[in-house]
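Thread title: Can someone regenerate the structure for this chain?

I was given the following input by a collaborator and told the matching structure tokens would be attached. They weren't. Posting the sequence so someone can regenerate them.
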Amino acid sequence: VPRRIPPPDALGVRRELPGGFELDDDAARVDVDAVHDFIANHSYWAPGRPREVMEEFVRAAIRVVGLYHGERQVGFARAIGDSHFVYLADVYVLPEYRGRGLGVELVSEMIENGPYADTRWLLHTADAHQLYAKFGFGPPSERVMERPRRDP
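Best answer:
Regenerated them for you:
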């Protein structure tokens, strides 16, 4: 019997961090324009992603966690999946805020402190391997296969 997991807006996690930073899993608070700007214009994994796609991804996520400094969105992570399998995506902290442990806090909030802590997680990344290793991510196993997106 699958575990019943509350919808993302019912979680209500809001946690203050030192230095005026805050983590919040309220999807309504996400500054989609700011997230889209970083993902589409500064990420290596989704350059050119359309804003409407980013907005759809935020709405469809089973959980989002925003990192804020005051009211400014300075980091983000989203998860898609179900109670048996979760994919971590679009994790970032703006460059000027890196090196303060905020990425660790962001990923910890998403993975360790959320309703999916006991679920199998997967992610794709070309960097930050040491960060993800802290949460039990390791090199791909012999069972992992990927079918990349096809260009139309």
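The CA atoms of residues 93 and 99 lie 10 Å apart.
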